[in-house]
Design brief:
Length: 216
């Protein structure tokens, strides 16, 4: 801690992080132990966070992340789009394909940013807000693949390619965002042609790396 930071705010943020990482929630005693503070401090922190809807306590007294966090998260997507757009524009123009940033939303893949190429006569129409199961597209499958190798890319390729995707009937390629805390996503392209050129995969990996760097 430095003179410019707030110890109370720091502890409150740490509480939220601990609860976000716990599927079953945590008791006051467990939180006090992990924060290395007494139970009275934890009670005060939880009471304040509850007032703002950021924490809730179940019948058994275990604290969990509250629905207020969802309202905050809704404001994150515009920030992510802004950070990702330069890399997506470059990717779309370079490959002549529709580029997109996709994030995990529950059990689904959600397209939060889409950029179409400006110079092609025809390209795949892909819209922001499109949802589909994670296993139904290159975007979602790249995310699922990344879960098998936390924090790193598969050394043999690092991207996923699909042909005739169920959602669009087009070919797709995507690479997961790597090394980001609290964000699961991928950068990808969808194309009209049935065969994906060999350079598309590495180029998508490059764009995913650029987006991840922009979000750090």
């Amino acid at each position: 801690m430095t003179a410019e930071t707030s110890q109370t705010l720091d502890r409150g943020i740490r509480v939220l992080k601990l609860l976000a990482d716990s599927e079953r929630g945590l008791t006051v005693t467990e939180l006090a132990a992990r924060l290395a503070v007494n139970r009275t401090v934890v009670y005060r922190l939880l009471a304040t966070l509850e007032q703002h809807g950021l924490v809730r306590r179940d019948i058994g007294g275990r604290a969990r992340v509250g629905l207020g966090v969802l309202r905050l998260s809704q404001r994150v997507h515009p920030l992510l789009r802004e950070a990702a757009l330069p890399a997506l524009r470059s990717l779309a123009e370079d490959l002549g394909a529709t580029a997109h940033l996709t994030l995990v939303d529950g059990t689904e893949a959600l397209a939060v940013a889409v950029v179409e190429p400006s110079w092609t006569d025809f390209h795949v129409a892909y819209r922001t807000g499109l949802r589909h199961p994670l296993d139904e597209s290159a975007a979602g499958r790249a995310i699922l693949e990344a879960r098998k190798f936390p924090g790193q890319r598969r050394p043999e390729q690092g991207f996923v390619i699909t042909r005739a995707e169920e959602q669009s009937g087009a070919s797709g390629a995507a690479a997961a965002l790597i090394g980001l805390s609290g964000i699961e996503g991928s950068v990808g392209v969808v194309m009209l042609n049935g065969l994906v050129p060999e350079r598309v995969g590495p180029r998508v990996v490059e764009a995913a790396t650029e987006v991840a760097d922009a979000l750090r």
